[in-house]
Amino acid sequence: MMLPGKALAISAQVDTVSINPNSIVVKEKGKISTEKTTALKEKVAKTFSEIFSLDYAETLEKVSKDTSAAITVARKVEKDKVDKLRAWMKEEDIYSGINIDEDTKRYYPYENLASSLIGFCGDDNNGLDGLELAWDSVLTGTPGKIVTAQNAIQQSIPDENQTYIPAENGSDLTLTLDANIQSIVEKYLKQACIENKCGRGR
After folding, report:
1. Comparing C-alpha atoms, which of 105, 110, 91, 112 is closest to residue 43?
2. How far apart are alpha carbons 44 and 74 in whole angstroms?
3. Domains along the chain with CATH numbers
């Protein structure tokens, strides 16, 4: 019976925050109030910059764009920061135009241990090197989706029979590598390299 080993690479749930600038507005009697909308956008940009440690001017520029398309503000945000944002949104009663979507982030608990073998992932969680790249299709899960019908102008048709397909996690990859032995080997290899460098020129 194989005993469970140490996790060298794991995926944890995080969130991505985006905005729809044209939805961040203040209306009075059915019309957009330019002055109050500007103040709201400044407030949103200030809050984003404080919570996510972003540049205020750059964030305000994104919030002020004349577009209804989604613009990413912060990727792979930790839960504590998202909780702060949710609390602020509730307190200010601001929801329209701010999106919080589930995402995943790749972590390496032992940092650089066996990094040349394990490899790494990019911002989109696709493997870029090592085992992360070689086994990308096995490690990567399948995103969830809703299957429904659309009319000739690409509008969704209300359908009670629409199908929801849940997301599926990717498979695990088990190595024969011993983390303890690998750590010791790397320690003495680094030490030998340093000593060899120091010995040059003698």
Report:
1. 91
2. 13
3. 15-107 (3.30.70.2110)
